[in-house]
Amino acid sequence: MKIIAHRGASLKFRENSIDALLFAAKIGAYAVECDLRQTKDKQYVIFHDKNLMRMAGVDLNVADITLPEMKQHLQNAGYDLLTLNVLGEKYKPKTPVLLHIKITDADENLAYLLKNTGIDFICGLTGAETVKHFNKIFDKDRILAFMGDKNDAQSYLDNGAGIIRLWEQWISNINIGDIKKLPEKPEVWIMANNNFTGNNGSNESLNYFHDLGADGVLINDVELGIKWLSSVKKT
Q1: Exposure on the CB side of residue 122, measured as CA atoms within 13 A
Q2: Residues 190, 144: contact at Cβ < 8 Å?
Q3: Contact 214/190 with Cβ under 8 angstroms?
Q4: Pairwise CA distance, residues 30 & 216, whole Å
Q5: Angle of helix 128-135 relative to helix 108-115, nearest 10 degrees?
Q6: Cα separation of 180 and 161, whole Å?
Q7: Rounded to an integer, what distance in angstroms lies between the CA atom of residue 15 and that of residue 17?
Q8: DSSP string covering 7-72, please?
């Protein structure tokens, strides 16, 4: 089972930072995940939230401010904002980057831009129609469906996705084996998320996902995930 570092090694370094991504790649994550948004002046930033309240204490949306304004607010809170340009300059590992694209009008222009960075991106997309644009540029094994509903898998697969992301709380009502047997033969990745360990994951949850036949798991505690994977390989 593949271990994907959610927002990088986000328990050791600041989430979505270059240090978090590089560390997770260095210790053996299959892929490192981060989030892409766009500012008012059309600049691409690696940032999870729609709003700056959690990270900077100001009630402003990323889409409503310019990149210099966003940088300043975050610097005031001790946060060094990573941009897509800087990611392209500093991220050199061969480890794929799962880029959760949180841009509603993402199209072929963005797909071409990502393809030309030299980074091995797995494009995480919300919206089956958006998948159509990216499927013209990326192979299906580099397109992941960040579905909003557990019943949307087929629409994403029809448009060219090759990986389906499920939330942990969905899997009690979904047969992962049935999804993997679909004609498109998708991989199924799970986002760790429960009331006890949140997105961090645990040995128990990893064993559970593995037994269900999951192909990958997104977790915050990538160090735990790598240790678990090593123990599984030894048995």
Answers
A1: 24
A2: no
A3: yes
A4: 9
A5: 50
A6: 13
A7: 5
A8: TTTTTTS-TT-HHHHHHHHHTT-SEEEEEEEE-TTS-EEE---SBSHHHHS---BGGGS-HHHHHH
Q: Encode 49-79: b = buried (16+ Cβ within 10 Å), e = exposed.
A: beebeebbeeeeebeebebebbbebbeeeeb
What backbone torsions phi and psi does residue 183 show, to the nearest 5 degrees? -55, -30
Structure tokens at 159: 């448009």
Work out the widest C-alpha separation in the chain, in whole angstroms.
53
Mean pLDDT by groups of 10 residues along the chain of 235 residues: 98 97 98 98 98 98 98 97 98 98 94 97 95 96 96 96 97 93 97 95 96 97 97 80
Q: How is the chain split into domains, by residue range?
A: 2-234
Instruction: Let me know if 167 is exposed, middle or buried by CB neighbors in 10 A (0-12, 13-18, 19+).
Output: middle
Q: How far apart are the first and last CA of the chain?
A: 14
Task: Kindly state the tokens that stand for 211.
Answer: 């037994």
Taking alpha carbons only, the member of 139, 201, 208, 147 closest to residue 179 is 147
State residue 34 phi and psi, 5-degree precision.
-150, 175
Q: What is the pTM of this model?
A: 0.97
DSSP designation for 81: P
**What angle do the packed helices 203-212 and 222-234 form, to 10 degrees?**
60
Q: Where does 2-234 sit in CATH, by number?
A: 3.20.20.190
Residue listed under structure tokens 């271990």: 3
Do residues 118 and 48 make contact, with C-beta atoms less than 8 angstroms apart?
no
Q: How far is it, in rounded angstroms, from Cα 123 to Cα 138? A: 8
Distances 206 to 178, 202, 214, 231, 234 between C-alpha atoms, Å: 20, 6, 9, 12, 16
